[in-house]
Amino acid sequence: MNTNADLLKSLKIDRSAPPPPSRKGLWIGLGVAAAVLLLVVAGWLLFARGKAPEVQVAPVVAIGGGNGGAASVLDATGYVVARRMATVSAKITGRVREIRIEEGQHVAEGEVIATLDPIDADQQLALARAQAAAARSQVDATAAQLRDAEANAARLSALAPQQLVSKAQRDQAIAQRDNLRAQLATARNNARAAGDSLRIAEQGVDNTIIRAPFAGVVIAKAAQPGEIVSPFSAGGAYTRTGIGTIVDMESLEVQVDVGEAYIGRVQPGMPTEATLNAYPDWKIPGKVIAIIPTADRGKATVTVRVALDSRDPRIVPDMGVRVSFLEKAAPQKPQQKPGVLAPSAAIVQRDGGDVAYVVDGERVQQRELQLGRTLGDDREVLSGLVAGDQVVLDPPEKLADGAKVKVAPASDADSDSNE
């Protein structure tokens, strides 16, 4: 009996013990953990996709084909130069009194651009005027004496045959007349010399006024009031040799260096098309003026002068320019669409073909290219790109079509390209 009672007691439910774990709670915990893991993975993927690589871009420019259906046979680079440019200086040494020019100012031919201190020149002029006046007075006085002597000699010559006067008196009167005639000639010569000295003194005063030798634009101002200027450089470091530099903008032209191997393609009078580095979308027509008949031994180039048909204030000396030498296409041949020029650094190999990546908004487009000639650091692209496209320089290996990119600031790209 006691044994059975003990067994029954052991089978009694203990309500104070904790309940066994529930299967439903376990599934809820696993679900929460999976959701947190999915959120972490999604956030990481979103962050990784949003972090676009930073790339540098360069523009694609057009070459040739812009002059009435003409095709480019040669491209060369050079600079805008002025055939008529002068650093204006004074003809004499003197202290600058006034400067009337500033950089960028237009001046007319003969316009006063500066003046020198005229004190010394004015004193020389006053002295020359006094000497000229004295010489003229001497001429007048000698002329009056000569008239009296001539009258006296004539009277005595008439009385001498009648023996009313002695022959000695007559001869003395004639000698005095001849002497005054010689004095008058000398006085007149002195007067002419004084007049010449006066004109020289006046020119000396005029030399203190510096005028523009031709119409143009001032590009440099070299002197200030109070400085000493001289046409010679013997005055030392404190003496200026020029007042300012003037350029005749009507004489601007382009000079390019063409390699000796290609100079045979260039002929005087052939049409050209110039593109300024500052304005890549502006095509300026022109023609070849002359081929300078000498070569640069070090660079193996020949200089070619090119005239520009356009006269525009945007064209200034020393601007970089690219010139396309054009040749009219044969009438029987269909005109081809002109190519464009792209940096060689933007062209890479993908799947055995030449491609470039064009930035379109925040993403890139992969373009298959058909290439032409190599022009320095650039390549001619016959198809696949158009002028104005922005292509990625040195695209990464993992850059794919449609990938998101971030364009580097222009200053960074420029500094890298200059290096």
From TrEMBL:
Transmembrane segment boundaries: 26-47
Domain YknX-like C-terminal permuted SH3-like, chain residue ranges per copy: 343-407
Domain CusB-like beta-barrel: from-to ranges: 254-326
Pfam families for the chain: Beta-barrel_RND_2, BSH_RND, YknX_C
A single cellular component GO annotation: efflux pump complex
UniProt keyword Membrane, yes or no: yes
InterPro entries: Beta-barrel_RND_2, MdtA-like_BSH, RND_pump_MFP, YknX-like_C
Gene3D superfamilies associated with the record: 2.40.30.170, 2.40.420.20, 2.40.50.100, Helix hairpin bin
Any coiled-coil regions, as ranges: 132-190
GO molecular function terms noted in the UniProt entry: efflux transmembrane transporter activity
Domain Multidrug resistance protein MdtA-like barrel-sandwich hybrid: 84-230
Keyword terms of this UniProt record: Coiled coil, Membrane, Transmembrane, Transmembrane helix
Family membership: Belongs to the membrane fusion protein (MFP) (TC 8.A.1) family.
This protein's name: Efflux RND transporter periplasmic adaptor subunit
Organism expressing this protein natively: Pseudoluteimonas lycopersici
